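F.,

This is the one I mentioned.
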């Protein structure tokens, strides 16, 4: 898949989908995509700049096969923001969603949405991306810092540099290696660490 400012979501190799996929759907006009993610069942999750999070069956060109998750100030069972940066599936069949306002979880069993981290929890910082370590802890790259969310304890911890180079800023990219190392990319380069080697020090 190719993400960009597009009016359709084509898939290479299927000309019918390239020509007809959501061709007349107003939802896909001037659609700006931040990231794409395919879950374990093959559904495509599309994180967008202003239209929330889309769940699409890429094997069908039927418009009613789109599920849209958005912010609704009158609905507590909604995302915190329509500016969604990324999403990932955990081992409990939930979709974790990062946005300009925090972190949300979509439980695929009942399609419920829970707001996990809000503005007040992370100091009005945008949450750009996330990954999971070998203990199922969720690691978050924010506009101001790296956070670890302990799922079992429902506990958030912020991490700082041990040197004098300052904090981590604008962590826009993330990758997880087979040996457990987490890589995060920003405007200042690449930061990498293995969660198993981190010593927690209270400040």
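My design for it:
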């Amino acid at each position: 898949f190719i993400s960009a400012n597009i009016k359709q979501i084509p898939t290479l190799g299927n000309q019918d989908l390239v020509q007809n996929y959501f061709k007349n759907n107003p939802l896909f006009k001037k659609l700006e995509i931040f990231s794409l993610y395919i879950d374990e069942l093959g559904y495509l999750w599309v994180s967008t700049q202003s239209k929330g999070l889309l769940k699409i069956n890429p094997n069908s060109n039927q418009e009613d096969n789109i599920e849209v998750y958005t912010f609704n100030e009158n609905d507590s069972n909604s995302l915190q923001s329509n500016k969604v940066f990324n999403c990932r599936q955990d081992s409990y069949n939930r979709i974790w969603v990062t946005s300009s306002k925090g972190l949300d979880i979509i439980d695929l069993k009942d399609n419920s949405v829970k707001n996990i981290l809000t503005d007040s929890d992370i100091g009005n910082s945008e949450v750009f991306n996330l990954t999971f370590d070998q203990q199922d802890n969720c690691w978050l790259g924010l506009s101001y810092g790296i956070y670890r969310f302990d799922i079992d304890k429902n506990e958030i911890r912020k991490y700082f540099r041990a040197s004098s180079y300052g904090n981590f800023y604008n962590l826009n990219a993330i990758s997880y290696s087979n040996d457990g190392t987490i890589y995060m990319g920003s405007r200042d380069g690449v930061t990498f660490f293995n969660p198993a080697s981190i010593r927690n020090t209270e400040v």
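The radius of gyration is 18 Å.

Talk soon.
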